[in-house]
Specification:
There is one protein chain. The chain is of the alpha/beta class and about 450 residues long. It folds into 4 domains: about 130 residues, Response regulator (Rossmann fold, 3-Layer(aba) Sandwich), CATH 3.40.50.2300; about 160 residues, P-loop containing nucleotide triphosphate hydrolases (Rossmann fold, 3-Layer(aba) Sandwich), CATH 3.40.50.300; about 80 residues, Orthogonal Bundle (Helicase, Ruva Protein, domain 3); about 40 residues, Arc Repressor Mutant, subunit A (Orthogonal Bundle). Helices cover about 45% and strands about 10% of the residues. It is built from 18 helices and 14 strands. The chain is elongated and about 115 Å long. GO terms for molecular function: ATP binding; sequence-specific DNA binding. It comes from Labilibaculum euxinus. Pfam families: AAA_lid_14, HTH_8, Response_reg, Sigma54_activat. This is Response regulator. InterPro entries: AAA+_ATPase, AAA_lid_NorR, CheY-like_superfamily, Homeodomain-like_sf, HTH_Fis, P-loop_NTPase, Sig_transdc_resp-reg_receiver, Sigma_54_int.
C-alpha cells in the first residue's frame, strides 16, 4: 500500500542550509511517505511540475546578508498560485517572528523557529499535514456537491413557452440573474415559482454553488430559528449536537425562501436582521456567523396589502422586493399548453416506459379548455396520470383524465345481460372519440341513427 494512502503525506523542504536539510530529512523520514529537499528556491517551480506535495517547509531568507523575509513571501505566493490548498510552514530566525505572522496572513499555516525543537517541528508539520488532508476532503466534497447540483438542475427542466406573459418573465430573468439583487417571485400556487428561482440561480455566477430551498409556511414558531439560523448543542431539549441552519448551508450560493408571506410578524424582524446584516447567530449561541447568500423569495400573497393591514413588515418587503417577477396563471397563457403538454407527455412516457406517445388534437383542445385552478402543478399531474392509465400511444380527449373523470375504469359486468354490456361499450366509444358520434358509431359497427336510438334508450 502507498504510504500516502495510509495517512502519510509528501514533504518538500526549501532551505539553503545543507546541514539542516540533512538533519530534517533524517529526523522526519519515518513520518512522511516521501521527503524531497531543495537548496536553491529557483528550482522550486520546476520541481512542482514534476511532483505534488502536501506540506512545504520554507525558509524566509536565502541570500547572504539579506534578512527582510521578502524572498520567503515571494516563494510562498508562488506555491499558493500553483496549489491554492498547499500547506506552507515557514522556517524563521528569532527576529523574524513578526514577519512570519505577516506571512501567515498571506496564506502560510504556521512557522518554526530555527532553534532545534524536535517535538515542535514534528507537531507543527503533522498539524499542517492534517490541515492539508482536510482541505483536500473539503475540495472533494465541493466537487461532489457541484456534480449533485448539476444532476439536480439537469433534471429540473421546464418549458418557457411563447406567450407574451412568459416572454416578459424571462426577459426580466435574463436581466437580473447575473446581479446580486434580491428577487421576489409572486404568483398563484403551482405556477412554477421555484422553477424560476432555480433558473435565476443557474444563470448567476453562483450556479456552481448550492441552491437551498425552505418552505417557511411549513415551519412552526419553535423551528423557525433553528431551521434558518442553526442551533448549538444544548440550545433546546433535543439539541444533542451543533446543527447548521439554511442560511449557513447556502453561504456562497442561493437561498430560496418559499411562502415568505406566511412568516408571523414577530419572526419577520429576525429574518430581516439576517438578510440586512448578512450575519446569523445560531440558537443558543453568542457569536455571529458571516453568511454570503443571495436571497430569492416567493409567495402567493399580496404583500403590499399585508403591509397595509399590518401583517407584514414594510422594511422586510422592500429588502426582498429589489426586483419583482410575477408569474401568470396557466389560464392566462393558454397558447403555451400544446408545448407544455408535449413536454410532460414525453417526460412521463419515458419515465413509465410507454414508448413514443402523442396527443391527438382533441386531447390538446380538451386541455386548453380547462381552467387549471392548480396551474402547472395540476397540469403535469393530469398528464402523468393520463399516461399511466392510457392503453394507447395516441392519447385522445377521452384519455385525458381531468379531476372529475379520474376514477378506476369500469369493467364489463360478469352479467350476460346484453343491455348492461351494450350501455358500457357505447359510453366507452363516445369517450374514446371525444363525443364524435360518427366515429363512435363506426367503432361500434352501427350507423349513427341506431347509435342515437341507443343513447336515448340508455339515457346517456
Amino acid at each position: 500500500m502507498d504510504k500516502r494512502m495510509a495517512g502519510k503525506g509528501k514533504l518538500l523542504i526549501i532551505d539553503d542550509n545543507e546541514e539542516l536539510l540533512f538533519a530534517l530529512q533524517l529526523f522526519l523520514n519515518s513520518h512522511f511517505a516521501k521527503i524531497d529537499t531543495i537548496k536553491n528556491p529557483n528550482q522550486l517551480l520546476s520541481q512542482l511540475e514534476v511532483d505534488e506535495y502536501d506540506v512545504y517547509l520554507l525558509d524566509m531568507n536565502f541570500k547572504a546578508g539579506i534578512n527582510s523575509g521578502n524572498e520567503g513571501l515571494y516563494w510562498l505566493k508562488r506555491i499558493l498560485e500553483f496549489d491554492a490548498n498547499a500547506c506552507v510552514v515557514l522556517i524563521t530566525a528569532y527576529g523574524d517572528v513578526e514577519l512570519a505572522v505577516k506571512a501567515m496572513k498571506e496564506g502560510a499555516v504556521d512557522f518554526i523557529q530555527k532553534s532545534w525543537d524536535e517535538n515542535k517541528i514534528l507537531s507543527t508539520l503533522l498539524s499542517a499535514l492534517k490541515l492539508r488532508n482536510s482541505k483536500l476532503e473539503i475540495k472533494g466534497l465541493k466537487e461532489k456537491q457541484k456534480q449533485i447540483n448539476h444532476q439536480i438542475n439537469r433534471n429540473t427542466q421546464f418549458v418557457r413557452g411563447t406567450s407574451k406573459a412568459m416572454t416578459e418573465v424571462f426577459r426580466t430573468v435574463e436581466k437580473v440573474a447575473g446581479t446580486e439583487a434580491n428577487v421576489l417571485i409572486v404568483g398563484e400556487n403551482g405556477t412554477g415559482k421555484e422553477v424560476i428561482a432555480r433558473e435565476l440561480h443557474l444563470s448567476s455566477h453562483r450556479k456552481d454553488q448550492v441552491f437551498v430551498s425552505i418552505d417557511l409556511g411549513s415551519l412552526s414558531d419553535n423551528l423557525f430559528e433553528s431551521e434558518l439560523f442553526g442551533s448549538k448543542k444544548g440550545a433546546f431539549t433535543d439539541a444533542k449536537e451543533d446543527r447548521m441552519g439554511r442560511f449557513e448551508l447556502a453561504s456562497g450560493g442561493t437561498l430560496f425562501l418559499d411562502e415568505i408571506g406566511n412568516v408571523p410578524l414577530h419572526l419577520q424582524t429576525k429574518l430581516l436582521t439576517a438578510i440586512q446584516n448578512k450575519q446569523i447567530v445560531p440558537l443558543g449561541g453568542n457569536t455571529p456567523i458571516d453568511v454570503d447568500v443571495r436571497i430569492l423569495a416567493a409567495t402567493n400573497c399580496n404583500l403590499f396589502e399585508m403591509v397595509s393591514n399590518g401583517t407584514f413588515r414594510e422594511d422586510l418587503l422592500y429588502r426582498l422586493n429589489t426586483i419583482a417577477i410575477e408569474l401568470p396563471p396557466l389560464r392566462e397563457r393558454i397558447e403555451d399548453i400544446p408545448e407544455l403538454a408535449d413536454f410532460f407527455l414525453h417526460k412521463y412516457a419515458d419515465q413509465y416506459q410507454k414508448g413514443e406517445c402523442v396527443f391527438e388534437k382533441s386531447a390538446v383542445k380538451k386541455l386548453s379548455q380547462h381552467s387549471w385552478p392548480g396551474n402547472i402543478r395540476e397540469f403535469q399531474h393530469i398528464i402523468e396520470k393520463s399516461v399511466i392509465l392510457s392503453d394507447t400511444k395516441k392519447l385522445a380527449a377521452v384519455d385525458v383524465l381531468l379531476g372529475e373523470e379520474l376514477q378506476l375504469p369500469k369493467k364489463i359486468s360478469d352479467s350476460l345481460n346484453l343491455s348492461d354490456n351494450e350501455k358500457f361499450l357505447i359510453e366507452k366509444a363516445i369517450k374514446h372519440t371525444g363525443g364524435n358520434m360518427s366515429l363512435a358509431a363506426k367503432e361500434l359497427g352501427i350507423n349513427r341513427s341506431t347509435l342515437y336510438d341507443k343513447i336515448k334508450k340508455y339515457d346517456l
